[in-house]
Write a structure and sequence with these properties.
By secondary structure, the protein is of the alpha+beta class. It has four helices and 15 strands. Keywords: Signal. InterPro entries: MbnP-like_dom. This is Copper-binding protein MbnP-like domain-containing protein.
Length: 228
């Protein structure tokens, strides 16, 4: 009788041990989305260095073309696009490859979707237009979507919208991030405060199409990524 009572516990313990073993045997890119060193929370009030008081209501972006370079000059490439969504904590851990216990010298990945995928039409998985990140074949995918409110915005409901995308030159919004990790953990810090420290929301609060302003924000977005 006692053994029957302990059976569910034993099975659960075995499951979690298997999960832990699987994680230790594989490399995964983990993104930690923060505001000045603390986990970023939707609908929480923040203040930028420009004294803009703001709340974020949505934050999504694509990570793709991940490459891990090792000290022995070998590398691993993953040509898949992942949608990172602050509302989905599971999306922030991206399995990469088997952990071969090699020292990592460099991490690189793209923010956004390339031109080939943008003109391929309706795709599945994270590239499914139902995810709300696809405009049309003429404009392609939204690489990064940031929405929220701020009293600094003289807009309806004080809303701001940054939909950064476009794939046709000179308005290709995809950006490559190259980082030198400080450890082998593959943890990447995404400090959103760094972006808003470089934006005056009273002057710049709505970008909904590809263009010069979108390219400027795309460039600023590269500064929010750092290795841990």
């Amino acid at each position: 009788m006692l053994s029957k009572l302990f059976l569910p516990f034993i099975l659960l313990l075995s499951f979690w041990q298997a999960v832990a073993q699987n994680q230790s045997d594989s490399l995964a890119l983990t993104l930690k989305i923060e505001w000045k060193g603390n986990p970023l929370a939707l609908s929480k009030t923040y203040i930028s260095s420009n004294n803009d008081t703001l709340q974020l209501h949505q934050l999504k972006f694509y990570v793709g073309n991940i490459q891990i370079d090792f000290n022995d000059k070998s590398n691993f490439q993953q040509k898949v696009y992942h949608l990172i969504d602050l509302e989905n904590l599971n999306s922030m851990r991206i399995p990469i490859c088997k952990n071969e216990k090699k020292n990592i010298s460099q991490i690189s990945f793209s923010i956004g979707v390339d031109s080939l995928q943008s003109v391929s039409g309706a795709l599945a998985g994270d590239l499914d237009p139902a995810k709300g990140m696809y405009w049309a074949w003429q404009s392609g995918y939204i690489n990064m979507k940031i929405e929220g409110t701020s009293s600094s915005c003289a807009t309806r409901n004080n809303a701001f919208h940054f939909h950064i995308g476009g794939y046709l030159p000179p308005n290709n919004a995809s950006r490559k991030i190259v980082l030198t990790p400080k450890s082998n953990s593959l943890e990447v810090i995404v400090d959103v405060a760094t972006l808003f420290d470089n934006i005056l929301l009273s002057e710049n609060n709505s970008i909904m199409i590809p263009g010069k302003k979108a390219m400027e924000i795309a460039n600023k977005c590269t500064k929010i990524f750092a290795s841990k």
